[in-house]
Design brief:
Blueprint (H helix, E strand, L loop, with lengths): L3 H11 L26 E7 L8 H21 L4 E7 L4 H13 L6 E5 L3 H6 L6 H5 L1 H5 L8 H4 L3 E2 L2 E2 L1 E3 L5 E6 H6 L11 H11 L6 E4 L8 H13 L6 E2 L2 E2 L4 H16 L13 H10 L3 E7 H7 L14 H4 E4 L1 E2 L12 E5 L2 E5 L6 H11 L2 H7 L10 H7 L4 H10 L3 E3 L6 H16 L4 H16 L7
Parallel strand pairs: 1-2, 1-3, 8-11, 14-16
Antiparallel strand pairs: 3-15, 4-5, 6-15, 7-11, 7-12, 9-10, 13-14
Helix pairs in contact: 10-11, 10-19, 11-19, 19-20
């Protein structure tokens, strides 16, 4: 049997392999040779986006705005700079493998698009370095940092260091149907302050025929949606995080309370539908049911507002023509006021992607200028044309989100209190174990037994020494 230390070494190496591919004789951690900047310079940029395919809007923005705009700005500054875009449009894991192989072999684009959840993993492997280490003093001197809240910067940070610049932001909230609330005798301007407030509202909604009071994602069928739009927002409401002080959460009081909420909702009081959590299309079904007025409360991200129930023609997958009048939204309360992480009354979780500098770049300072240009207010405004979403910058959000109170609410009220998943190689496996724990509880297994199963699985993934007691 492999020791935990050997498993960690293999896991780190596996980041740079695809199937049986093995690269040897590479040194990703060495200092790149820098060429003189006096002559023509070519910078390269890669993201998992491609015109006409995956993330097409981003690819079009890079081709139509970023490249000509930056090249013109450089020319005005007396510099002959060409930017080449290397588009990708593949499965996220295939893209991750490609950029890992590039970085491990000392190659890759000067600027690389990266999911925030990968940052810690790549940093631990030595494939990326803090932004200021690569880009120089100009990184820390950038005025853009003052416009990006610390909580949002954390999406592309690791061990207290900035490794990249986030390109967007999102947050989780509680959505609710105002018409159902009115029928149940509840306040249509709902603002729960504790879990008990959520349960009380759910109990009132249970009296309505054909209505499932609350949908709190559970189970493995919904995958990461269970973790991000279910267990983790609940867990941070107990004051605990899945990874803290270099330990993964074990059979803690917080996890017991979080799973206890699932037990109350799905087993003890029948406030949710446990069968829905086991269906392959359960999440999409929950969206449709909410849109049809058959689910009262739903914990989801702002994506649900922007893309699922959006009434604009051709946008929403479950459009609600009366969305703006019928759908309410509220911050997720901690278990009790002041019991959330950092003593917060309200909590949330966020994901996000961004861009990092390649430590192998031959032109790291110019690469930083390009990255800063891509994250300027003007660039975000150009990016938002026709695809309104929350940017990481407060100044941009203040200007652009005024037409959408819900997105403004997330920007102003939710992002400052949000938390992020740990960007570590073990997280995806830990997430699956947590998903299984919620499924076990939702289908009748006791919280105690579900936690025992979770901890046994966790020991096999990270080793017993890496688990909090």
């Amino acid at each position: 049997m492999l020791t935990y230390a050997k498993r960690r070494a293999i896991a780190a190496f596996a980041l740079t392999t695809a199937g049986a591919v093995v690269l040897a004789g590479c040194s990703a951690g060495s200092e790149p040779e820098q060429e003189e900047e006096s002559g023509p310079v070519t910078l390269t940029l890669t993201t998992n986006s491609i015109t006409g395919g995956k993330n097409s809007a981003e690819a079009d923005w890079i081709a139509d705005y970023v490249i000509p705009g930056f090249e013109e700005a450089m020319a005005d500054d007396g510099k002959d700079v060409t930017v080449e875009f290397e588009p990708q449009g593949v499965d996220d894991e295939d893209y991750k493998t490609k950029i890992a192989l590039d970085l491990q072999s000392g190659k890759g684009a000067d600027i690389i698009g990266m999911d925030g959840i990968w940052v810690g993993e790549f940093a631990e492997a030595g494939y990326i370095e803090p932004l200021a280490t690569v880009g120089g003093d100009a990184v820390d001197d950038w005025d853009g940092w003052a416009q990006i809240p610390d909580a949002v910067q954390n999406a592309l940070s690791f061990d207290g260091e900035r490794y990249g610049v986030p390109q967007g932001a999102d947050g989780r909230v509680l959505y609710y149907n105002k018409e159902l609330f009115a029928q149940a005798g509840l306040d249509e301007e709902w603002a729960p302050e504790s879990w008990e407030d959520i349960l009380d509202a759910s109990r009132a909604l249970k009296k309505l025929d054909g209505v499932t009071p609350i949908q709190l994602n559970a189970g493995t069928a919904m995958g990461e949606a269970t973790t991000m739009q279910g267990l983790l927002p609940v867990l941070v409401g107990t004051g605990e995080q899945v990874y803290e002080d270099e330990k993964w959460i074990g059979a803690s009081d917080g996890l017991e309370k979080a799973l206890g909420l699932y037990e109350t909702i799905y087993v003890d009081e029948g406030l949710g539908d446990p069968v829905l959590q086991q269906e392959a299309s359960g999440r999409d079904t929950s969206f449709q049911l909410f849109a049809e007025g058959k689910i009262g409360i739903l914990l989801e991200g702002d994506y649900f507002w922007r893309s699922v129930i959006n009434p604009a023609e051709g946008v929403g997958t479950a459009p609600m023509a009366d969305r703006d009048n019928v759908v309410g939204y509220a911050k997720i309360p901690a278990m009790e006021p002041g019991e959330g992480i950092d003593g917060q009354d309200f909590v949330s979780m966020s994901g996000g992607t961004g861009r990092v500098l390649n430590p192998n770049s031959k032109h790291p300072e110019l690469a930083w200028e390009l990255l800063a240009f891509m994250n300027s207010p003007e660039a975000f405004e150009a990016r938002a044309a026709g695809t309104l979403s929350i940017s990481p910058r407060d100044d941009v959000n203040e200007k652009l989100l005024s037409t959408d109170p819900m997105l403004m609410f997330v920007s102003e009220e939710v992002l400052p209190i949000t938390a992020y998943r740990p960007g570590l190689a073990a997280y995806p496996q830990v997430s699956v174990l947590l998903q299984q724990a919620t499924l076990d509880v939702a289908t009748g297994t006791s919280v105690e037994d579900a936690m025992k199963t979770y901890v046994r699985g966790l020991e096999g993934v990270v080793g017993p020494d890496a688990i909090s007691k």
